[in-house]
Design a protein that fits this description.
By secondary structure, the protein is α+β, with helices and mostly antiparallel strands. Helix content is about 40%, strand content about 15%. It contains seven helices and eleven strands. Helix 1 runs antiparallel to helix 7 and helix 4 packs parallel to helix 7.
C-alpha cells in the first residue's frame, strides 16, 4: 500500500510538471517575457491579450513563398507496402519524425521508384509533421539529409525564417497543446484521427519580432530541458 501511495504521488507530480511546462509555453508565446509592455486584444479567446507590438497569423501566412511551402505525402495507392525494400532511398515515415532520427531508417524504396516520386522529395529545412497515429509531432530535417521521399502519413512544410523560427514552431507543436487544441476545435470533435493540409494551414501562431523570438526560444528551451530532466528522474 505504501508503495502504491508513493507511485500515485509521483504520478501526480509528473502530471503537475507536464501541465506546468505546457502552461509556461502558452503564457510565454502569447504574453512574452516582459510583463510591463502595453497589451492589446488578440481577438482570439484562448490567446487573450498579446503585447501591442506583436501580431497573430495563420500558418499559411507564415510559410515560405515557394512552390514547396507545403506538400502532403503521396496517396497510399502510389506507395504501397510492396514498394518498401530493405535498402535504397529513404521513406521519411512517422518513426523518423517521432524519434527525430535522421541517421537511420528501416523504410526504403528503389532508385527507380524514387525517380517516379521525385515530387515528394524531402529537403534540408523542411518541417515534417505526423498526420496519423501519434499526430501533430514535428521534426526539422537537417541540412544534406539522406535522399528520400515523404511517407503518405507525413506532411512537409517550410516556414518563412524572417517571420518565425522553425525551432520555435517545433517547440510549440511538440511541447504544448496550443496546436493540438486548435485541431480538435476545428474538427468539432473530442479527438482527431487525421491532420489535413487545410487545417494545418489555418493554425494560429503568434508573430513575435525576431530578436525577441530568439530570446523566448532560448528561455523556453532551457526551461523544457530542466523540466524534462526532472520528469525523467521521476518517471524512472
Amino acid at each position: 500500500n505504501r508503495i502504491d501511495g508513493i507511485i500515485s504521488d509521483l504520478e501526480k507530480q509528473i502530471e503537475t510538471l507536464q501541465k506546468y511546462k505546457k502552461s509556461l509555453i502558452l503564457e510565454t508565446v502569447t504574453k512574452g517575457l516582459n510583463k510591463n509592455v502595453p497589451m492589446k486584444p488578440s481577438g482570439i479567446d484562448w490567446i487573450g491579450d498579446i503585447p501591442k507590438h506583436w501580431d497573430i497569423k495563420r500558418l499559411k501566412y507564415l510559410l515560405e513563398r515557394s512552390d514547396e511551402k507545403m506538400k502532403v505525402g503521396p496517396f497510399g495507392s502510389m506507395l504501397s507496402g510492396a514498394d518498401i525494400v530493405n535498402e535504397g532511398k529513404w521513406v521519411y515515415n512517422q518513426r523518423v519524425v517521432l524519434d527525430d532520427n535522421f541517421k537511420e531508417t528501416d523504410s526504403f524504396i528503389t532508385e527507380e521508384k524514387f525517380q517516379e516520386m521525385k515530387g515528394f522529395i524531402v529537403k534540408g529545412g523542411d518541417l515534417l509533421i505526423t498526420t496519423r497515429g501519434t499526430i501533430g509531432k514535428v521534426a526539422i530535417v537537417p541540412d544534406n539529409p539522406p535522399e528520400g521521399i515523404l511517407h503518405p502519413c507525413i506532411i512537409k512544410f517550410r516556414v518563412n525564417k524572417d517571420l518565425i523560427l522553425p525551432e520555435l514552431v517545433k517547440l510549440i507543436f511538440n511541447e504544448s497543446d496550443i496546436v493540438k487544441d486548435q485541431f480538435v476545435f476545428m474538427s468539432n470533435a473530442t479527438t482527431i484521427d487525421v491532420i489535413y493540409s487545410y487545417s494545418l494551414n489555418e493554425i494560429i501562431l503568434p508573430v513575435i519580432p525576431m530578436q525577441e523570438q530568439k530570446v523566448i526560444f532560448d528561455f523556453l528551451s532551457k526551461q523544457c530541458m530542466t523540466t524534462d530532466s526532472i520528469l525523467k528522474d521521476k518517471q524512472e
